[in-house]
Amino acid sequence: MSNLFVKQAKQYAGARPSYPPQLFQFIASKTPSHNLAWDVATGSGQAAKSLAELYQNVIATDASEKQLEFATKLPNVRYQHTPSTMSIAEVEQKVAPQGTIDLVTIAQGLHWFDLPNFYAQVNWVLKKPHGVIAAWSYNLPRLSDAVDSVLDQFYGSDTKPYWDQARRLVENNYRTIDFPFEPVDGADHTGPFEFVTETVMDFDDFLTYIKSWSVYQTAKEKGVELLGEDVVEKFKLAWGEDGQKVAKYPIYLRIGKVSDA
């Protein structure tokens, strides 16, 4: 998974959306203490930066050293390069001891994981009781009727042959992803709970965002340029004369707690 984003790490850091404060406030309200959070597959640290405002310390890990190079450095965030798959012993060595973490977060990454192995780590490292895991994904941004129409067609036809099967879990808004945890206090299910994040982008930003997709690099390695001149021209016509547009990304959160046992 980590290799999918190596070649466009800079685009990923610059083009991917940040997440709304409401999302983190909701998550943080479900953990009784705010000492230590583990942001898994942190990428360039979009989520870790926000967690650092709510938790005393954050451990932000990723299997891509290139991605971590572009992460914002903060005094209470420790960035750690880790293997794609870790044993419990490696989790203890590289992340934290057993039962010491208040919150585990995964932003736009859970669909890539070996879930049984990862969930064993989560259950081992989270505090009992009340340790919380929160994972979210976001889908295509909405910008305008004209741009959305071209983007949906581009996504549904041009890119479809090159997406990994894991992408289907994102398309289903994480409804069908395996998530064997108990509802957090105050909830009767584990989600998805819906949020929205907004960012302002110009046309070049929009193209950079598409180039940050894993599928863009996958297609390129197969000799296919997804953003050919004809495709770019379609997007340009749909974009119109507006210099900038507000992109709204729907976010879908799954959140749960480990059992007390």
Automatic annotation (TrEMBL):
Gene3D superfamilies: Vaccinia Virus protein VP39 (3.40.50.150). Pfam families: Methyltransf_11 (PF08241). Residues 39-128 form the Methyltransferase type domain. It comes from the Eukaryota. SUPFAM superfamilies: S-adenosyl-L-methionine-dependent methyltransferases. GO terms for molecular function: S-adenosylmethionine-dependent methyltransferase activity. This is Methyltransferase type 11 domain-containing protein.
